[in-house]
């Protein structure tokens, strides 16, 4: 099983930027789909972005397109989420997650339903 350690996050003003990192141990992320999810107070958890290092597939939720960028550092076995143009609606606990990449199922299904290892979460607060 993959162990995931998150870093980054914190408090930022509207329009600011933050970078989240997710470092993996116990397995190489190259064989996995890695995703970022978030949960705001009183709301359900939602997918933000996913990446497959194997085939470079990416997914972005509509509400973060053109603002967030997911990337991988293969040497460091790390996936990052660069978040720009943040607004108060982005305030949430952000989780990274990983799951084995089952290509028969498809990248999108792996992203949304195939995660089985989770980080502990990191709080992102955007002030108005």
Low-pLDDT runs of 5+ residues are none
- Structural class, judged by helices and strands? mainly beta
Taking the sheet with the most strands, its summary is: 7 strands, mixed
Helix and strand pattern: EEEEEEEEEHEE
Mean pLDDT: 95
Q: What spatial form do the alpha-carbon principal axes imply?
A: globular
Q: Give the radius of gyration.
A: 14 Å
Head-to-tail CA distance between termini: 39 Å
Q: Which percent range fits the helix content?
A: under 10%
Question: How many DSSP helices?
Answer: 1
In what range is the share of β-strand residues?
A: over 45%
Number of strands: 11
Explain this structure:
The chain is mainly β and 128 residues long. The protein has one helix spanning 107-113; strands at residues 3-8, 10-13, 18-25, 32-39, 46-52, 58-60, 68-73, 78-83, 92-100, 117-118, 122-127. Strands 2, 4, 5, 6, 9, 10 and 11 form a seven-stranded mixed β-sheet that branches. Strands 1-3-8-7 form a four-stranded antiparallel β-sheet, with no helix packed on it. The chain starts with a strand and ends with a strand.
Topology:
Layout: E1 3-8, E2 10-13, E3 18-25, E4 32-39, E5 46-52, E6 58-60, E7 68-73, E8 78-83, E9 92-100, H1 107-113, E10 117-118, E11 122-127
Parallel strand pairs: 2-11
Antiparallel strand pairs: 1-3, 3-8, 4-5, 4-9, 5-6, 7-8, 9-10, 9-11
Key phrases:
128 residues, mainly beta, 7-stranded mixed sheet, 4-stranded antiparallel sheet, 1 helix, 5% helix, globular
